[in-house]
Amino acid sequence: MWKQKTLTLPAKRRGCHLVTREVLEQLPELAGMRVGLLHLFIQHTSASLTINENADPDVRGDLERHLNVMVPENAPYYEHTLEGPDDMPAHIKSVLIGPSLSLPITDGRLALGTWQGIYLCEHRDHGGARRLVATIQGE
């Protein structure tokens, strides 16, 4: 079986956000899958998806602070500046983290590790709602 749908995550402030529950709420069809794969793709160039710590929110804050040190705003060599000082750094962070995830499905659930969750990394100060294309393959 193949299924594809577009999910919407509401606008979030800049930072790394645990969105596992929000994603799963929009994918009730996973419950009927014995084995499969969920592919998530974010349709934006200034936000990204990753898997990381689901228990301690300090990890999300530390990740955001580290990304801001690695990729600062207002770097004198940026040419793409018309959309504000957070835009070019957002594009760079998106390239570093990536736009997609492939997650195994086992017995109707995502086969994430005990401490793993899905992160939406919002790299803009006011990025707006974010669309994810979810593609499910399996039986």
UniProtKB/TrEMBL annotation:
<dbReference type="Pfam" id="PF01894">
    <property type="entry name" value="YjbQ"/>
</dbReference>
<comment type="similarity">
    <text>Belongs to the UPF0047 family.</text>
</comment>
<dbReference type="InterPro" id="IPR001602">
    <property type="entry name" value="UPF0047_YjbQ-like"/>
</dbReference>
<protein>
    <recommendedName>
        <fullName>Secondary thiamine-phosphate synthase enzyme</fullName>
    </recommendedName>
</protein>
<dbReference type="InterPro" id="IPR035917">
    <property type="entry name" value="YjbQ-like_sf"/>
</dbReference>
